[in-house]
Design goal:
The chain has 34 helices and 14 strands. It is of the alpha+beta class. The strands form five sheets. It has a five-stranded antiparallel sheet. A three-stranded antiparallel sheet has the order 6-8-9. One of its GO terms (biological process) is vesicle-mediated transport.
């Protein structure tokens, strides 16, 4: 029978890289790069080839193999696997690079920061403290060749070849026989007085001083060079001098050295070291401490090394979200670290977490996701957006908190290019129609109009024809002046999507009505838009052959390139109104827009002075709504973003019923007239209007006869009558004031398009019918129970257990 011996090296689950070995440190081992055969994950493999006549070196290598296998510490090189044969020794560790090679590569790329060096030295000293104080072991080989760096920039202590027990159990220190390593021995060993050393850590602390000198100044030429600190930071020099002192008894214990360097003003007393120490103990920290840490982490990430953020901070952030209930506070640092990842890594590590976050009912998390969507939207594919994200995002349109409604509207600018036909042209348009008609917050109605103008190019031709003209016409009747401006700008931004007939018969009549608007900003934009449409009509009139070219986009399919004009025309509205709404929400989270009292002009003689009238705290002139204010508004938004966690947002699940039951009719001041119109058989309810908006075109109501905007309540003065920070008002009256006065006379008996329908009719009847049906069922059930009780009483004879007496 034949026996075949198997090669253990060939069966080893790790293989060496064909590349030549990287800069191996002096000693018996040769460092190779390698990978695990099963998964392909990178590793480092230390190889020692057994040579005849080198029994002493072989014993040193086997001792190092044993030490590395049994010692476990975060700052000591991590052992993974090993192989020992008669011909070689293989030790597999985490993927690392020798410190000398690492420092050289970083020097070519700009050099290491003091923050990184402080943490690296902290790790080495901590490893020495573990060996000396906890294990009673002397490393005996602390130098540049014994330190390695992993992919996260963490320094690991290796080189355990010459380690021995401090208690003298295994004899004295082994002989090195390598001049490159013996130059780091302390002077008391060189002159033969090593037996007089009383402190077990003295020799290793001297070698630590040599390591510090080489880290900052390069290779150590001779021991005498230690007298000159060179480039060692001033905050570290006093402690360094203690390490390289001639008296071995004065050299501090590793634990004491760390304590001295961590003192206020010390070299290792910085934010980077504190962050690393917190991450090492994050599993035992209190939830409040974790929340505070993640809130402050985002500010520090810009100064931290990229490798550290990718390989150490990111896994902790993902773990904190998955298992630590960290909530929304991890989002900001998570997306900041995500900038360091490749597209493939982003898809694998962050996108699954983001998709899961959108299903959360935590309002703070939802609003932060919407605010920071721009950072990850490019990594989301269309199926994920339509099936896993959009169904959760649309709940924000019905939220009772105005801030969430506004951020949901603004997020549609980024989601629209990825939405499918149904979600974009049906579902989204339903929510936009409801917001524009019913939302009580003027800035949200304004932003809805702006957003519709920006995404108009993505809509289908049929939806554009049915929605855009009606929606912008409705916006021009909004009592909130910036919404009227947004309606005019919406027409101008999407001018290429209308036929010439629509321009002449639908759009220009609406714009002409705005030329007498009480607000000058609305009038100015109306005149600009009118001139633009008239010049377009005139050019086609002069040369009818241009008609096909002018109307080429009217029936064209949706195209992303058609949205450029909208973005430039309406770029002012989202940021301007956003900062305003943020202020309103912080002041009154669920109330209507904040109001402020505006000083009144003196009343004319013979008339009583009007009482101070609250007006919306919104600038109504054209200036503050222009693009030059974007920078200021963006700063206000960023400063307000960090305060969302301080609000008591509650849960979306808890308010689901109240959201469905609530009906936000902000024009309730016309309830009396609504009640009068409820009896009109031709009058449609709000519920029927929105449920059949596709078939009946609810956007298109009243565009044929645009009516002037609703006058302000009694006592409210025109915006042009106030002194908005300019020169003193003159006695000259507003030329449009007379027009406003004439409009007030007819305004009492009419209603604009915002309150045309009896929105509550069907729903009220439905609720009454259900209540009546429930009441009848309760009555019927009560009668049945009474009949059963009567039958039991009527039974003759006494009752026995389990039976009834028979006659």
């Amino acid at each position: 029978m034949w026996f075949f011996a198997r090669d253990p090296v060939r069966d080893f689950p790790f293989e060496l890289s064909p590349e030549p070995p990287e800069g191996s440190p002096p000693g018996p081992w040769v460092l190779h790069r390698g990978r695990k055969k099963a998964t392909g994950s990178p590793v480092s493999i230390f190889v020692y080839d057994v040579k005849p006549g080198a029994e002493e070196q072989t014993q040193v290598a086997k001792a190092a193999f044993k030490r590395l296998k049994t010692l476990r510490h975060p700052n000591i090189l991590a052992y993974i696997d090993g192989l020992e044969t008669d011909k070689c020794l293989h030790v597999v560790t985490e993927a690392v690079t020798p410190l000398g090679v690492y420092l050289k590569a970083r020097a070519e790329a700009g050099g290491l920061k003091e923050l990184e060096l402080s943490w690296g030295l902290h790790q080495i000293v901590k490893a020495l403290s573990f060996l000396v104080n906890d294990c009673s072991l002397i490393h005996n080989n602390v130098c540049m060749a014994a330190v390695f760096v992993d992919r996260a920039g963490e320094w690991k202590l290796g080189g355990l070849d010459y380690m021995y027990s401090a208690q003298g159990n295994g004899g004295g220190p082994p002989h090195k026989g390598i001049p490159e390593l013996e130059q780091y021995d302390p002077p008391e060993l060189a002159d033969g007085s090593g037996r007089a050393v009383r402190e077990k850590w003295s020799a290793d602390m001297w070698r630590l001083g040599c390591l510090i000198w080489e880290v900052f100044n390069g290779s150590l030429p001779r021991a005498a060079a230690l007298r000159n600190p060179g480039k060692i930071p001033k905050s570290l020099v006093p402690h360094y001098c203690e390490l390289v002192g001639a008296n071995p008894k004065v050299r501090p214990n590793p634990a004491r050295f760390l304590q001295n360097c961590r003192a206020p003003g010390g070299f290792m007393n910085n934010r980077f070291v504190e962050t690393n120490l917190f991450l090492e103990e994050i599993q035992i920290k209190e939830p409040a401490e974790k929340q505070k840490f993640f809130q402050e982490l985002s500010k520090s990430l810009d100064s931290f090394p990229e490798d550290f953020c990718r390989h150490k901070v990111l896994p902790q952030l993902l773990t904190a979200f998955e298992f630590g209930n960290a909530g929304a506070v991890v989002l900001t640092p998570l997306f900041k670290v995500g900038k360091f990842l490749s597209a493939e890594e982003y898809q694998q590590k962050i996108i699954p977490v983001v998709v899961k976050m959108f299903s959360s009912t935590d309002r703070a998390m939802r609003i932060r996701l919407l605010q920071q969507m721009e950072q990850f939207i490019q990594y989301l594919d269309e199926p994920t957006v339509n099936t896993q994200i959009f169904p959760h995002v649309v709940h924000g349109f019905l939220d009772t908190n105005p801030a969430i409604r506004e951020q949901t509207v603004k997020s549609m600018l980024l989601l629209a290019p990825k939405l499918n036909e149904t979600n974009l042209n049906v579902e989204l348009m339903k929510h936009f129609a409801r917001l524009q008609a019913k939302d009580e917050q003027g800035p949200i109605r304004c932003n809805t109009t702006v957003c519709l103008g920006k995404i108009g190019s993505y809509l289908s031709a049929t939806t554009r024809h049915r929605v855009l003209t009606s929606a912008f016409s409705r916006a021009t009747k909004d009592p909130f002046a910036p919404s009227r401006v947004a309606g005019v700008l919406g027409f101008a931004a999407t001018h290429n999507l209308y036929s010439m007939n629509d321009c002449a018969h639908k759009i220009l009549p609406v714009l002409c009505g705005l030329t007498v608007d009480p607000e000058k900003s609305v009038r100015d934009q109306a005149f600009k838009a009118i001139r633009s449409f008239l010049s377009k009509l005139e050019s086609v009139s002069e040369d009818p052959t241009q008609l096909a070219e002018v109307e080429k986009d009217v029936h064209a399919a949706s195209s992303p390139g058609m949205g450029g004009a909208a973005a430039s025309w309406a770029g002012w509205a989202v940021t301007g109104v956003s900062s305003l709404t943020s202020k309103l929400i912080r002041a009154h989270p669920t109330a209507a827009p904040a109001e402020t009292n505006v000083p009144q002009r003196p009343a004319p003689e013979g008339l009583p002075a009007p009482a101070p009238t609250p007006v919306p705290a919104v600038p109504t002139t054209s200036g503050p709504w222009e693009t030059q204010e974007e920078g200021k508004d963006t700063e206000e938004d960023s400063s307000a973003a960090d305060r969302w966690d301080d609000e008591d947002w509650g849960s979306l699940e808890q308010e689901a019923e109240s959201v469905l039951a609530q009906r936000d009719d902000w024009s309730t001041r016309n309830q009396a007239s609504q009640a009068g119109q409820a009896s009109n058989p031709g009058h449609r309810s709000q519920e029927s209007d929105w449920s059949s908006w596709e078939a009946e075109g609810s956007w298109e109501q009243d565009w044929q006869e645009p009516s002037p905007p609703e006058p302000p309540p009694e006592g409210t003065r025109l915006a042009s009558e106030y002194n908005w920070g300019g020169p003193e008002p003159s006695d000259k009256g507003d030329p449009f004031a007379a027009l406003s006065v004439h409009q007030e006379a007819g305004a009492q008996s009419r209603r604009d398009s915002w309150g045309d329908d009896n929105w509550e009719g069907l729903e009220t009847e439905s609720r009454q019918a259900k209540a009546e049906l429930a009441r009848k069922k309760r009555e019927e059930r009560r009668r049945e129970m009474e009949a059963k009780r009567a039958e039991k009483k009527a039974a003759k004879g006494p009752m026995k257990l389990g039976t009834r007496k028979l006659d």
